[in-house]
Amino acid sequence: MENLKLAWRNLWRNRRRTMITAASVFFAVFFALFMRSLQLGSYDYMYKNVIESYSGYIQLQQKEWWDEKTIDNSFGYNLKLEERLLSDNNIVNTIPRLESFALASSGSNTKGVMVMGIDPEKESLLSDISKKVAKYHLSADAIAKILASKQLPEKATGNLPLFENVYYDDENRLLQDLGLNVEKKDSYLPVLARYSRIEGEQIKVGEPGVWLGQELAKYLEVQPGDTMVLMGQGYHGTTAAGKYQIKGIIKIPASDISGRIVYLPYDVAQELFHAENNLTSLILHVRDNSDKAIAETSQWLSEKIPDETRIIDWKEMNDVIIQQMEADNVSGMFMIGILYIVIAFGIIGTVLMMTAERRREFGVLVAIGMQKKKLASIVGYEMMMIGLLGVMAGIIISIPIILYGVNHPIVFKGELAHMMEEYDFEPKLVFETVSYYYLWQAFVVALMVLVSLIHPVRKILRLKVVNALRA
Amino acid sequence: MKVLELKNAHKIYNSSEIQVHAVNGVDLTFEEGEFAAIVGPSGSGKTTLLNMIGGLDHPTKGLILVENTDLSKLKPSKLIDFRMRNIGFVFQSYNLIPVLTAAENVEFIMNLQKKPKKERQKRTEDLLNAVGLGDRINSRPSKLSGGQQQRVAVARALASKPKFILADEPTANLDSKSTETLLQIMEELNREEKITFIFSTHDARVVKRARRVVTLEDGKILSDEISKN
Ligand SMILES: Nc1ncnc2c1ncn2[C@@H]1O[C@H](COP(=O)(O)OP(=O)(O)OP(=O)(O)O)[C@@H](O)[C@H]1O
Ligand SMILES: [Mg+2]
């Protein structure tokens, strides 16, 4: 008790230094927690957007498909198989896909594309692709007409050229990009709609028709309602060819995919490729996506599926992304580690100054009868208190900010957002709650304090009273 | 009763080039209740001698016995405890603990000694009253004058009821009025508590007040006289 009191009072002998040191600890803790929250948030977001919305957690595939993605490596799919799969308690639905390559052409433009045969309704179990059908297109022509109409405020007309050739699936985003007040959409939207509205439609199983990624649409210079031709190799060397109406342009964030993707109903794709009843993959939509449940389900299914097929899980399908996340995780920790090392030097500096300027006082205390160990423990308490002050402040202040961030992701707007999208970054910062990480911070700071104490404690234990008194 | 005895004490400093024989064969005995001054020119070995007596430094040769305890036989931590229980220190530059109040400074060693709270408080009050600072018990050292700080230091040295108090030039930093006050207080406490005071000094007025004067020169005792007053 006495020692704690002494330590506490010693802290405030040099208030500014104590505050600066505690503040540096606070900063490190706060930054680490904040960064960690963003990191976890981005991983979570990736899981949701890539794994949950694209690959799913487990798929049934023809054995060779994953290594060689040709239509010949597809497998027969029928109701009996479907029933067998659904008999697993963890599988609530199946989502069929038939995927291949073809040449897409319209007019004089041709491009090699990825053809995705999907069931749009079932696909919506994974992602909101059907909501991504573009409603507006700021073509050069549309921009010229909007400008000529002179019905938008100056700010918006200034912004318009920046967004030339951009597609929008969301009118609020359009208004925000132009710097228009979303609340007043009634006064601006009619003008924008008159010249830039494009009519997208859903594609449906049983009805021929395609969706294109927005970059592909730009390349082929097509609009909804136009037709395009798909040509390629069908099942077992047959010739695949078909002419389809473009029903919609899909706003896909990843630019490389959006430049080469064509969606069509899977039965239409089966027909195109002469692969009736075949699929290249069947996503098994699961109730419980924990590692354990996935493993159990995979195990259970492996004996019930046809010989030509196999079960593949999300880890195998997304190994590149998972590796990227791991690398990002490591580099994040590395950065925080460096930050902590810098802060640790600050703490060491403080403790060195603190002990150097009190050498004489230490000499007096030992002379009049204080044990060196006790003296060392007082200095220890002092540094611990500074550390604690910093950690507590860091945790207490970061909790509400992180919680706020979890509920209100930071969404970038305007040109910056488009720039980020061009580099395939989602223009969004997502936070995630961090739990055990708080303890880690306390642990790391405690460790730093302990390390910073090594030198002064040694100095105290070796203190020569006579020399210290003369100082 | 004999509280302190030095037998053929030597201290030799071996700095890189020259050897300094700071204390050179000193034999001395102090009885309970003495009020003794150690005098001598600068460099004669006063501080070195007091440090050895206080167990802050070990003699190169010879014995220091405090009531039959040979200080050089004590292990370092035992020696610290021994100082806490038996020896009071007053330093030239006061050296109070800056973050503690006058009362807390006085109480400090009694705290280390784990004396009961009641006893500590009573003794602190008595001592601060005795040194004339009863009204400044809650002041931090920085709010006290040099003379007042040194009076607190004397009270602190006395608090643990040591066998003797060592003071290396306690009045060197004080003006003559504060010196006079401090001396009076030291004399009074010496008389009332029967505590031995051993102090070094350069100041002739201080020397005059001592009842015994030990004069050093080049580390040797030049004279050891009982004064008449
Ligand atoms: N740590 C040391 N290393 C080397 N020599 C020392 C050391 N301490 C003291 N001395 C020398 O020992 C001698 C006695 O020093 P001491 O400090 O005891 O003298 P003093 O009588 O207290 O002098 P003053 O009146 O100036 O305080 C001096 O010659 C001094 O230079
Ligand atoms: Mg001296």
Please tell me about this protein's structure.
Chain A is α+β, with helices and mostly antiparallel strands and 471 residues long. Chain A has a domain at 2-49 and 321-469. Helix content of chain A is 54%, strand content 17%. In chain A, helix 1 (2-11) packs across helix 16, helix 2 packs antiparallel against helix 14 (319-356) and helix 5 (140-149) crosses helix 8 (185-196). The two termini of chain A are 30 Å apart. Chain B has 229 residues and is of the alpha/beta class. In chain B, helix 3 crosses helix 4 (117-130). The longest helix of chain B is centred in the C-terminal third of the chain and has 18 residues, at 176-193. Chain B is globular. The two termini of chain B are 21 Å apart. At the A-B interface, helix 1, helix 15 and helix 19 of A face helix 2 and helix 3 of B. Residues 46-47, 168 of chain B line the site of magnesium ion.
Quick overview:
The complex is a heterodimer of chains A (471) and B (229). Chain A has 471 residues and is of the alpha+beta class.
Beta-strand content of chain A: 15-25%
- Name the hetero compounds present: adenosine-5'-triphosphate, magnesium ion
Q: Identify low-pLDDT runs of chain A.
A: none
Q: State the shape of chain B.
A: globular
- Percent of residues in helices of chain A: 40-55%
